[in-house]
Amino acid sequence: MFKFFHGNTIKDVKTRLLFIFSSIALTSTFLAFFPFSLYLVINEDNQVAQHLASFEQIATEHYALIQNDFAQLSPHVNAYYNEAALPDRIKQLMPFTENVITRHRPYDEDGFIIFHTSFIDLQGKKTPLYLTIDALAIEFGDDGWYVLMLISFALMIFLITFLRFSLQRMFDGLMSPVMELSHQLQHNHNDEFSVSERSIDELQTLTKHLNEYKQMKERLARQELMFAKYASHELKTPIAIVLGAANLQGMKDDPVFQAKQRERILVAATNMHATVEVLLNIVKQENASEAGTMRVVSENEIPLDKFRAKLKDGVKLNFAIDPETQLNLPEPVLAMLLKNLVNNAIRFTRQGHITIHIDNHTISVTDTGCGLTGSTETEHGLGLLIVKRLCQSYGWGFELKSNPKQGCTATLRLLINPS
């Protein structure tokens, strides 16, 4: 019962709103009608009293003609010239103040109004005069009241209906875009959200942001997929090396051969451990407390020999680091960043040079390759994704742009102020 009072759907809210405003309209109409009706009743009673008092001169002249204690001056007005002639119901209320209108139960059927005064008759004698009239003798009339009530009731129904219709039209105009958006959210998973151009500005802004969030969600989903592929690739390679070296160890008993395979296993395991640590830092954001910790970086921790081993013929690797350089990047993270940036530079550089420069606020890798020709995410693959994620975790900004002449430069800039 009264389920719509508790529902939260647009239909329930509309029903509840229409009910509330209908109640307000009904109450407002009653509050307007009640004082108006009360005013009519009070004004009518005053008119009856004034009508009764107007018979004073007539009653005086009439007494001179009939010389009687009672006279009916009109179908509703009676005149009494002696207290003894008054009806018992009036005698019970005596005495009456002279020249004052007295009302007795003026709104009941047995109520009456009395006007007491006096005059000097033809013999010079002071004669009392009591004019009486029934309280409801000349009321507005039942027919008149019925017409008034019907008109008022019809006006009330019209106002409520008009208000309800107007409110419903206004509510539908406001809520139809919301219902449309709700329907699109439930069913149109691949399409962009849209509302009518006549919708209010806030709804159009909301629709715009929903589309932006949808695009961002799709972009993040693609990045997460690329991140998973990158993690899989980075872990599969050392695992394959470890398995291969372990299998080869069982083929020969040569100590030199065995030592070589163990070395391969240790290097691959070390690289895999570093990769896992970096990936865990990104996923779990365990590096939050380390982002402000500075450490001195030396040239010895940069694997320059590994980078040079991958260079194509005709390509030279240059490296420069400012003295006493301090960074907030742990060694595995710095190694992962340089590995991805240098590998991308090697991939697109067939001749010329690749330059690595590191100082307290900047890490840059510049090459003389083919530069950027399209989307950096598709050109440079998964490596840039891991670089972006690491930069976000440690408070660095990342930028990749083409050089004026040839090649491109990948630049990492420190955005925070480590303590």
From TrEMBL:
Q: Name one GO cellular component term.
A: plasma membrane
Against Pfam families, the record matches this protein to: HATPase_c, HisKA
What is catalyzed by this enzyme?
ATP + protein L-histidine = ADP + protein N-phospho-L-histidine
Q: How does it sit in the bilayer?
A: Multi-pass membrane protein
What's the main place this protein lives? membrane
Alphabetized UniProt keyword annotations: ATP-binding, Cell membrane, Kinase, Membrane, Nucleotide-binding, Transferase, Transmembrane, Transmembrane helix
Instruction: Give yes or no: UniProt keyword Nucleotide-binding.
Output: yes
Q: Which SUPFAM superfamilies match?
A: ATPase domain of HSP90 chaperone/DNA topoisomerase II/histidine kinase (SSF55874), Homodimeric domain of signal transducing histidine kinase (SSF47384)
Membrane spanning stretches: 17-42, 145-167
Q: Write down the InterPro entries for this protein, in alphabetical order.
A: 2C_sensor_his_kinase (IPR050980), HATPase_C_sf (IPR036890), HATPase_dom (IPR003594), His_kinase_dom (IPR005467), HisK_dim/P_dom (IPR003661), HisK_dim/P_sf (IPR036097)
Q: Give the E.C. number(s).
A: 2.7.13.3
Superkingdom field: Bacteria
User: Gene3D superfamilies recorded for this chain?
Assistant: 1.10.287.130, Histidine kinase-like ATPase, C-terminal domain
Which SMART domains does the UniProt record give?
HATPase_c, HisKA
Any idea where the Histidine kinase domain is? 230-418
Q: Which compartments does it reside in? A: Cell membrane
Mind listing the GO molecular function terms for this protein?
Answer: ATP binding; phosphorelay sensor kinase activity
| Name of the protein | histidine kinase
Q: What is the lineage of its organism?
A: Bacteria, Pseudomonadati, Pseudomonadota, Gammaproteobacteria, Vibrionales
